[in-house]
Design a protein that fits this description.
TIM Barrel; 12 helices; 8-stranded parallel beta barrel; two-stranded antiparallel ribbon; single chain
Length: 351
């Protein structure tokens, strides 16, 4: 397989080389310094890093603007020294005491103000590290008890928050990353269709895009390639988070293609056919190492995901398009199905 990426730039976040903790157990590996993660990213062939705001500036809420500027500048220098770029910075709006009941949709106006102030700090950090986007995962915007919040009012509150953020930075581009559940039972912006509709409600829809994560689509019972295609049709797919998922479970963040190779193939196919990446879009990974993985090989899931993606790029480019068109014209979809399977398994095909 050729390791040629073509137009694709690939990224991952520091949390993707993790300690293996889960809701039911403690860490099983030791933390790795951010500088070492950046070095590993470059060694593995990645071009950029994704960040939460407090990945760049730890204990962000306790820092002055001068401290934030100094520490963000250090991260920018670390990126430059490794030849990496910052793809995005995302505000972490789900860990603070003020966001227990949500951020922009919190029932307490003081908590809503905290969320707004925190997100503006994130935008400042984004500029300091020259990141391309702000990603907004609306983690706790929703509820486990529907009577607690008005569904209609929540949408309007998020719209108003976005408008204020778009005013705060006139060049800001926001990518909404939807998820149907986790950590709240019912998210108010659960799917990519909701995310795109929300963007159109703002005062600057041209600066509102979205990010499709494979697992998040699957947790809605949807196919991620269809979600990508829908967002591409709107011109709103500005990034992706590729991973895999074993059905309607918790967000597993398996290595890309590890569970369902056909689904992974079709995600690559829809990106390839749309020319994704030619306008600077990134192919991001959001994958976690297996809990059983040992310390010294706790990065293999990233290497494997990248290899799987590039291998599937070659598979997509190697499709016999004339045969594909012929079988579609003949409406012989069973034969097309067999051809695709033979192609993916590397088996000789005879019509």
């Amino acid at each position: 397989m050729s390791d040629k990426q073509g137009v694709y730039r690939m990224s991952f976040g520091p949390w993707n080389i993790d300690e293996g903790a889960d809701p039911f157990g403690p860490p099983v590996r030791q933390p790795i310094p951010l500088a070492d993660k950046m070095k590993r990213a470059k060694e593995l062939g990645f071009d950029g890093m994704q960040f939460h705001d407090d990945d760049v500036v730890e204990d962000l809420d306790t820092k002055s603007s001068q401290q934030i500027e100094r520490e963000a500048g250090q991260i920018k220098e670390m990126l430059a020294s490794e030849g990496l770029a910052a793809e995005f910075v995302a505000p972490r709006l789900w860990f603070a005491p003020e966001t227990i009941d949500g951020a922009f949709t919190n029932n307490d106006p003081k908590c809503r103000q905290y969320a707004m102030d925190r997100t503006k700090k994130c935008i400042d950090i984004l500029r300091l590290v020259d990141a391309q986007y702000m990603v907004l995962w609306l983690a706790r915007e929703g509820t486990s008890i529907r009577e607690v919040k008005s569904a209609r009012q929540q949408v309007l509150m998020i719209r108003d928050a976005l408008n204020e953020l778009l005013d705060y930075d006139k060049d800001l581009r926001i990518l909404v990353e939807p998820k149907p559940n986790e950590p709240v039972d019912s998210a108010i912006i659960p799917t990519i269709g909701h995310a795109i509709g929300l963007g159109y409600m703002t005062k600057a829809p041209e600066r509102m895009g979205c990010l499709v994560e494979t697992a998040h689509s699957m947790l809605c019972g949807l196919d991620a390639s269809d979600d990508m295609g829908y967002a591409l049709a709107h011109g709103k797919l500005w990034s992706v988070h590729l991973n895999d998922q074993g059905g309607l479970k918790f967000d597993q963040d398996k290595a890309f293609g590890a569970y369902n190779l056909r689904h992974a193939f079709n995600q690559v196919r829809v990106l390839e056919e749309a020319g994704f990446g030619q306008n600077g879009e990134w192919v991001g990974l959001d994958v976690k190492a297996m809990r059983t993985q040992k310390q010294d090989v706790s990065w293999k899931h990233l290497a494997n995901s990248r290899r799987n993606f590039l291998a599937l790029v070659e598979k997509v480019r190697g499709l016999d398009k004339n045969l594909e068109r012929q079988l579609i014209a003949e409406r012989d979809y069973e034969e097309l199905d067999r051809y695709i399977l033979c192609h993916l398994m590397g088996l000789p095909y005879k019509g």
